[in-house]
Amino acid sequence: MHPASFGATVVTARPAEVAAFYERHFDLKITLDIGWFICLRRGEVDWELAITERGHESVPAAVSALRDSSNIFGFVVEDADQVAAALTDGGVALETEVITEVWGQRHFFVRDPEGTWIDVIQLVAPDPAWLAANFSTPQ
Fold it and tell me: Residues 20, 26: contact at Cβ < 8 Å?
């Protein structure tokens, strides 16, 4: 199988509110809005984020019955600290502090209005000692 693109879906009772969150804070643009189903993209990327109304006939009943999200969406950004500050200024509570990981990420977590976890990631140089301890060949 060779998928042509990738998409993730948030199932919610508030499609417009969740879509507005991604528009405002992650610069995604609505490409389709039919009320119960909203698609968002950024530019010409080969992925999309869909927002689907909980309970709609297109959503399996078992999915509509779920209330807590254990999914994590990762967004790679240029500057995690800048995004964290903008989210905080916009009234969004951060779930974690911004931290730098030895494996080469500076990141933090936030949640959308439906509770979906978002890992905001800035790629940084990994710690040389960590690389040496975890990889036998140079990276």
Answer: no
